[in-house]
Amino acid sequence: MIKAAPGQRRVMGGDFNAAVSRAGYAESTRSRFEKVDEQFQGFVRLTGGTLIKSVAHTRRDLVRESSASLDHIIAWNLSIESSSEVHWMGSDSNDHALISCTVGGGLLTYRDPVDQAQDTGKPKLKKIDPKQLPRILPKLNAIMRPIAKDIHEKVKEGGCSKEQGVTQLVQERMMAATALMHKNPEGRGNRARERGPHRSKDQVKILKEIGTLKAALLSRGKPGQASAAAMQCLTEFGLYHDFQMTPQEAHDITYSPKWAAVLNTMI
How many angstroms separate the CA atoms of 92 and 42, rounded? Predict the structure, then answer.
């Protein structure tokens, strides 16, 4: 697909299971991983893409105490305006981070209706503040989901071309994101609203700890390996290191009735 249209602008992002940086991996796996990593970077070079490297590792394993940059963004025929930022958000059981960057920012802009009416000849640039992205992303996705569905149906029915659909989708997303962003992201009032009504920092911390306990109670992990949330609890309780547990022993504990009773008591 990429070779068929070499001049087309493209962006591809996600978990490629190939790294530009690793730490804590077993020496016995080194040659295999080096081969995979080289094949990945060879693909980027062969297709003429630009690999946007993240500023930190994007995947972590609490059991093996290893980490790597496995999530990447590749751009073709687009200017690069920033490195890939890493955002650890969501549940503590998540082992991959959200990544974001800015590419070809001038292309992802729209003309404000007021500016169009005035016909100034210059589009008004609307940029999403990457620092606010983790906060607004859940709301933004919820707003855009039905809009994207309607635009997709419109394209399928021949109501507009694919290019027009993409343009409209970008415009809608930019407008929604702009409406959700704080004009003064560092303001005290904004931080208070993020904590919720009458919630102190200590209360927010407690709520996060309860979230981790609930995740550890509900998640089961993989065969022979406890979930990331359970491992975090075992580590914070001092059990994992004090008893020098193996991954299998940690896994077995999380299946015991006493483990569930302890977590329910703490919750």
Answer: 34
Any residues with CB less than 8 A from the CB of 121 and at least 6 apart, and which?
none
Task: Look at residue 107 and tell me whether its pLDDT is greater than 70.
Answer: no
The matching CATH number, chosen from 3.60.10.10, 3.20.20.140, 3.30.420.270, 3.40.50.10420, for 1-101 is 3.60.10.10
Q: How far apart are CA 121 and CA 115, in angstroms?
A: 8
> What are the two backbone dihedrals, phi and then psi, of residue 65, each rounded to the nearest 5 degrees?
55, 45
> pLDDT value at position 35?
92
Distance of CA 93 to the CA centre of its chain: 14
Tell me, yes or no, if the pTM score tops 0.70.
no
pLDDT top residue among 58 and 198: 58
> Token pair of 16, please?
């490629």
What angle is formed at CA 106 by the lines to CA 140 and CA 158, rounded to 5 degrees? 65
Q: Which two tokens stand for residue 26?
A: 């077993």
How far apart CA 241 and CA 258 sit, in angstroms, is 19
Run of H or E including 11: strand 10-15
Longest CA span, the chain:
71
Per DSSP, what are the bridge partners of residue 12?
74
Domain chopping of the chain, boundaries? 1-101, 108-181, 201-266
